[in-house]
Amino acid sequence: MFPASHTAIAFHPTLPLLIAAYASFEFSVFDLSTKTFSKEYPSQKIPYPTTKDKTNKVIGITFHPQKTLTILFYGLTYISPVVMNEV
Quick one: DSSP state of residue 85? Predict the structure, then answer.
């Protein structure tokens, strides 16, 4: 189902979407209502902190509590926000 090995997945809190992060520091959005990968939010690179420690993979996904269109990807030493309407 996923195009690559995923390191974290999360359901969006208010929309019928599943977010998947991959070992390649990319993510994709799966639309649960159409059962296809979203064309509105195509696969994108996750902004990675300047310390390029590629062993520090994305281990979790959460959402900003007041701004649910902001996805927060996190690893052991970083948090990378992505605003969905800017994807």
Answer: G
Looking up tokens 């090995």 gives 5
Cα-based torsion angle of the residue sequence 11, 17, 18, 24 in order, rounded to the nearest 10 degrees: -130
pTM of the model: 0.84
The neighbouring-strand residues paired with 52 are: none
Distance CA 25, CA 47 (A): 8
Q: What is the pLDDT of residues 22-48, one digit of tens each?
A: 988 889 999 999 999 888 788 788 887
Cβ neighbours of 35 (radius 10 Å) = 8
Domains of the chain as residue ranges with CATH: 6-86 (2.40.10)
Q: Which token pair is 69?
A: 């269109």
